[in-house]
Amino acid sequence: MVSAVIVAAGKGTRMGPNIDKLFLEVAGRPVVAHTWQRFVEADSVHEIVVVVRDGMQSAFAELAEEHGLNKPYRLVIGGAERQDSVWNGLESISPRSEIVAIQDGARPCTSADLINATISAAREMGAAVAAQPVTDTIKESEDGKMVSRTLQRSKLWAVQTPQTFRVEVIRRALTAVRHRGLQVTDDTAACELIGQSVRLVSGIAPNPKVTVPADLAYIELLLRQRK
């Protein structure tokens, strides 16, 4: 059995004050409705857990009803940090689940092919992540003002979601993070902590995340082209 955990409990502060980016309309639907729909359409996913802010449960339930998001789902309250929200989601998946795909709620263009590819890679390797090779030249700066050195671009990848795992692997990895009192910016970093190999899965189609207002026009274009 395969579960999806959609992390939708963040505040999205870079969009501006009092703006919930997940409910901004793009291509006729709220951003998070598109994200959710991608996993409804993925035949390899059997259930969906959506991690939300406390007080938003009714808004998400109404969203599911309005947009026909009818695959079995549960709403779970998020935690203080992203890794806490992911943990709460993991605690709520079916005990029969063997694979879990963890997805940003603000990443609405993820293709079914990419979801399926990360699931297959996670079955084989234990952990997999959607990623793209970096095409820009990347500089490192020690003080944020001056260039310290140029990083070797051929070795750099920008990771995205879904980040997909055997359930026992990600539980073990996040348990190690929690026991050490650490914070990680993504779930594969927890796997690195325990020495778990992570397969990079490169998708063909763009898979952007809504972070700042300027992202919306590009994502609108992608979603309308998809239709």
Give the biggest beta sheet. Answer: 7 strands, mixed
The CATH topology label is: Spore Coat Polysaccharide Biosynthesis Protein SpsA, Chain A
What Rg is obtained from the alpha carbons, in whole angstroms? Answer: 17 Å
Taken together, the total number of domains comes to: 1
Approximate shape: globular
Strand % is: 15-25%
Helices and strands, in N-to-C order? EEEHEHEHEHEEEEHHEH
Classified by CATH, the class is Alpha Beta
What is the CATH architecture assignment? Alpha-Beta Complex
Structural class: alpha/beta
CA(first)-CA(last) distance? 29 Å
Tally of alpha and pi helices = 7
The low-confidence runs, each spanning 5 or more residues with pLDDT under 50, are: none
Can you give the helix content as a percent range?
A: 25-40%
Mean pLDDT: 93
GO biological process, one term: isopentenyl diphosphate biosynthetic process, methylerythritol 4-phosphate pathway
Site (Positions MEP for the nucleophilic attack): 153, 209
Pathway: Isoprenoid biosynthesis; isopentenyl diphosphate biosynthesis via DXP pathway; isopentenyl diphosphate from 1-deoxy-D-xylulose 5-phosphate: step 2/6
Enzyme class: transferase
